[in-house]
């Protein structure tokens, strides 16, 4: 079976199988949290955290406000100011990567994610984000490697498990893809994240209908 390659990807969804549209769990608002918070209900902001450093807090709040206004360039400027003051701030590099990816600059975003990982090697969110950046370029094997690294750090990272399943589907590893999506489904059920449960159920239904048109 030949899987249609993806020529474009948004930060919301990816055309994963022919005419079907599958949701990609990505490092957008749904994942922009510290690794210790990834199992919580996603926030609508770039970041939610307790920070005793007023200067750092102000810069990230500024980036939040600009991001909510879809002023990604402005958010990038704020984050670069933060990194200039705190060059070893892994979170800032991670957030910068997310903003760059929203501006369709995957190569630069990749460097930001890699820098976050250099500073903080056990950064599951950054590995998942790096995988998504590779996926925007159809670099599926590299994406899979990063998703697996994220899952080694946190086996209950549902977004990374979802992304892994879709990447496996892209390289025609259907059984592994289904297995990964079923694991993601169980993770989200355990976390009572019903919106994600519904999305994964729809993905599995679409995948199973490819070889069985009677499934509807």
Principal-axis shape equals elongated
* Pattern of helices and strands: EEHHHHHHHHH
By oligomeric state, this entry counts as single chain
Reported for the largest beta sheet, the result is:
2 strands, antiparallel
The low-confidence parts are 1-45
Summarize this structure briefly:
The chain has one domain: Serine Threonine Protein Phosphatase 5, Tetratricopeptide repeat (Alpha Horseshoe). It has nine helices and two strands, in the order E-E-H-H-H-H-H-H-H-H-H.
Describe the structure.
- With 216 residues, the chain is mostly helical.
- It has a single domain (13-210), classed as Tetratricopeptide repeat domain (Serine Threonine Protein Phosphatase 5, Tetratricopeptide repeat), CATH 1.25.40.10.
- Helices cover 60% and strands 4% of the residues.
- The chain is built from 9 helices and 2 strands.
- The protein has a two-stranded antiparallel ribbon.
- β1 and β2 form a beta hairpin.
- α2 runs antiparallel to α3 and α8 (174-190) packs antiparallel against α9 (194-211).
- The protein is elongated, with a radius of gyration of 17 Å.
- The two termini are 20 Å apart.
- Mean pLDDT is 78; it is low at 1-45.
